[in-house]
Amino acid sequence: MPEKMEINFILSTTPIRPVPTSFPPLGSTSLIDTLMEEGYSPKFYDIDALRPNFDQVLEYFKKEQPDILGISAVVSTAYRYVKELSHAVKKVSPKTSIILGGNLAASAEVVLRKCPISLCVIGEGERPLLNLMRHFEKYRNFEPNEDLKNIKGLAFLDENQDMRMTGFEAPVEKARLRQPNYEFLEKYSDINRFITDAMDVPHFSRDPRAYAPHRLGQKTATIMTSKGCVARCTFCHRWDKGYRAIPSRNLVEQIKYMQDRWNVGFFQIADENFGSDMRQVDEFLTAIKPLDILFHVAGVRVHTIDRNPEIITRLKEAGCTAMYFGIESGSPKMLKVMEKGATLEQNRRVLNEVVKREMYTIIQLVLGMPGENEDTIRETIDFVNEITEKITDDPAHERISPNLFQALPGTPGYEYVRNLGLIGKSIDEEEAYLLLISDNDACSHEHYRNVAESSLAHARLWQHKIMREASLNFYRKRNWKGLKDRKHIKEGRVKDYKRGGYFRIIKTGLMKFVFLWRIEYIFHTPLESFRLLKSRYKVYGFRGILIHLGIVPDEDRSMYVLGESKSLRKVVTFPPLEALTISEQNMIPLRAGR
């Protein structure tokens, strides 16, 4: 291998949420592995896991003086930190060229015009980054020239300050898809963030198999069995086009390695879309069954299970403790708006099969998309009630994860909101929106731009309304009797509450007492009216009281009525190219997504 010119390249993560995630920085370690294989010596600064204060971050870059800083911004909600970091790094290390990759690159023009960032990497970064390193060896900068324009997967400002996008690079072959490099994370990050106590994970702690003596002390970690997704949900931002399943022999090697190296016996399979290649699933289950592991699978398509419900039993026999689906809504209308590609009846059949076969799941919902109203929310409540009333182990409110629609760049949802003028079309207005959603979780009201057919006062109640009514229905069906928990269920729930309880109805946890649910049921109608009054007051102030009393009319939502049920992708339109500037034309591929 030819000797490489020494380049001080540092790849850095950004803090995604207030508490570090246990999901390893797969994209970052894959990029680093790619560069190391080609003879480069990259460094890694895992800000997300290490959580240094900002002064420590600046001291690090002041000392290192990198030639190139690559910022991995995997979510658009990282914009505020990216802006602060890039400006600060240029002050302490002026010669550093800064590049950015991840989903935030869907807002490339904002990033490039508002931050001292040379270019954005679009989509999978392995090939573009390698080409950029070779380019830097030759030119020692990323000033726009013909060679830079010939590198696929980039967005940058050209010599005329027009935004340029060089097209998408070809995807990485499935045989070369990588797992998180835990050895690298052990050396350069905090491995205890990513290899953790399995009993801290609800779907493990609630499975009696987890308490077998030979599993005592085993850890949990994350692996992937595929990359990409066969769906194109209109609220979901993703770069990867198509679906690639990792060969089963590679997966078995990784599992055995994790077992031997770190005593990992519990695996969180965090695919975007597990199981769409059924031949790979068959091979995978056959191969791992002798390994005696426990695992959960995420991103399962309803179609996958509806075609073959027996796969639930096979998964469980192989060690699966939980399956998660993107159900999103109980309304046929909203499923079409989201382009879920599944019917309400299919969702019903699959969830009923999962419950019947005693496989743990959570009903994940996205509320408040265009077209949502009180009628569609009622359909979702009825659907959730039907499924959760059949669960025997846990109160219904621990099985529901309702989030508000978050308009993210690179999705039809974002463009719909933007076209309505709720985000704005200028660079300054788009930046203001990116700053607003920075560090906000999808369950928060702070980020929500109301594009539903109902008022914001109603929309702010939908999350809690769904959970409350599910629990009311659950206990009513049981004649207001509590459940006698099996030991593993009780211990799992206690851990949930100590961790903050993702699915609790109220923070104090008082509503775990059944008699309070009965009181809620008796006074349900006046309590609902009071909650709506309170919400109206928070949204509109004193005018909200007058709205509630019928003295003044509620806000007019007629412009937000979708009418015919169809995918949001078919509603969003882009202006003709001749009406756009060069920069606006080059942003369209990023705005439309893949």
Determine the CATH superfamily of the largest domain.
tm_1862 like domain
Quaternary status of these chains?
single chain
Q: Count of DSSP E strands?
A: 16
Q: Estimate the strand proportion.
A: 5-15%
Protein structure class: alpha/beta
For the residues shown, what is the average pLDDT?
91
CATH architecture of the largest domain: Alpha-Beta Horseshoe
Strand order of the largest sheet: 2-1-3-4-5-6-7
Shape: globular
CATH fold-level name of the largest domain: pyruvate-formate lyase- activating enzyme
Q: Low-confidence parts, pLDDT < 50 over ≥5 residues?
A: 497-510
Radius of gyration: 25 Å
| Number of structural units classed as domains | 2
Helicity level, as a percent range?
40-55%
Describe the structure.
With 594 residues, this protein is an alpha/beta fold. It folds into 2 domains: 1-186 and 564-594, Rossmann fold (3-Layer(aba) Sandwich), CATH 3.40.50.280; 187-522, Alpha-Beta Horseshoe (pyruvate-formate lyase- activating enzyme). It contains 26 helices and 16 strands. The strands form 3 sheets. Strands 2-1-3-4-5-6-7 form a 7-stranded mixed sheet, sandwiched between helices. It has a 7-stranded mixed sheet with strand order 8-9-12-13-14-15-16. The chain has a two-stranded antiparallel ribbon with strand order 10-11. Helix 1 links the parallel strand 1 and strand 2 (43-45). Helix 3 (54-64) packs across helix 4 (79-92) and helix 16 packs parallel to helix 20. It is globular, with a radius of gyration of 25 Å. The two termini are 36 Å apart. Residues 497-510 have low confidence and may be disordered.
